[in-house]
Amino acid sequence: MKLILSCLLLSVVFLHLASCYQQCTVPLSALQCGDNQQPATHPSYNQNAIPGKRGAPGIKGEKGETGNIHDVRANFTRNAARLDRVEERLNQVEELCNKTRMELLEQQLADRNQLRSCQDVPTKLHHRRNGLYTIQPDDSVRPFTVDCSFQGSSVITSIGHDAEDETEVTCDAHRCHRQEIHYNTGFPQMRALIELIGNCRQFIKYRCHDSMLFRGEYAGWLSWDGEMQIYWGGANQQPNSCACGVAGNCADSAYKCNCDANDRVEREDSGYLTYEDHLPVHTLYFGDAGNPGEYGFYTLGKLECMG
Any idea what the Cα angle at residue 185 is, between residues 181 and 189, rounded to 5°? Predict the structure, then answer.
């Protein structure tokens, strides 16, 4: 659109230039004055006629205005200056038009090479090398950097965060430990990726010793939109449950998580969160790990989308 408007403006300037040129064109007769100016010949005058008797004198006409060569030259100078300005403006518009054309060509080239996800790397870049790439799943979000991993025929697009290392919980009250997750990109970008690819997941683990998860509501986590969730990885969204609760093999059959046995034995609950409407994890909450003999360590993996 910018190129079209610039070229329309260029056409208008051409028309204006032609108009100014006409104004700057002065007839040669306008520059003649004094004795060099030849009198006009009356159309009834016949050079071959025989002279006769002179007629009576005619009525004397009014004296015409005296021509001023300086006025003509001044007008010519003004119009010539105007023409120079128009030509200068014309050059500016032409330069803008060329610049806009180049920008459009560069943008078209960038669009052809823009990756929507890691799945585009083999088709657009013609290789399958693991590493960091800039993608843009949707035009409504800014491009961002992801980690692409190629494993056989599968492709994994990963986004990391600042809490991937195992972290200790040291307080005892309900949800006293709060860990907000700061990802390498924004939530709109990650949601655009999830909606484009699907098949996304996030690993979560709690290693505990006499420290409970959902028994007593000590733990929980916020989905990307800020809603509190009380299920763990591998639980298929079953409330107050972990993977062992779904499989029916928890340490204490009265509870649906190993850590909820709270029996002074080191245990673990882990698995993948796969319900995409809740991903990625926004914030983690823990507690029941501040008394002697109690401890808890949690781990949250990267957001992974597989294609």
Answer: 115
Picking from 145, 138, 260, the residue whose alpha carbon sits closest to that of residue 211 is 260
> What is the DSSP code (8-state) at residue 25?
-
- Among 172, 202, 178, CA closest to 284: 178
Nearest to 299 by CA among 163, 103, 150, 120: 163
Cβ-based neighbour number of residue 230 at 10 Å: 17
Quick one: pLDDT band at residue 17, thresholds 50, 70, 90? very low
- Cα Dmax for the chain: 149
pTM, to two decimals: 0.65
DSSP 116: S
Place of tokens 């299920």: 231
**176 CB-contact burial (10 Å; exposed 0-12 / middle 13-18 / buried 19+):** middle
Which pLDDT tens digit goes with each residue over 200-221? 999 999 999 999 999 999 999 9
Contacts of 73 (CB under 8 A, 6+ apart): none
Supply the angle between the helices 2-24 and 69-113 in degrees, to the nearest 10: 170
- DSSP, collapsed to helix, strand or coil, labels residue 84 as helix
Residue 267: strand pairing partners: 208
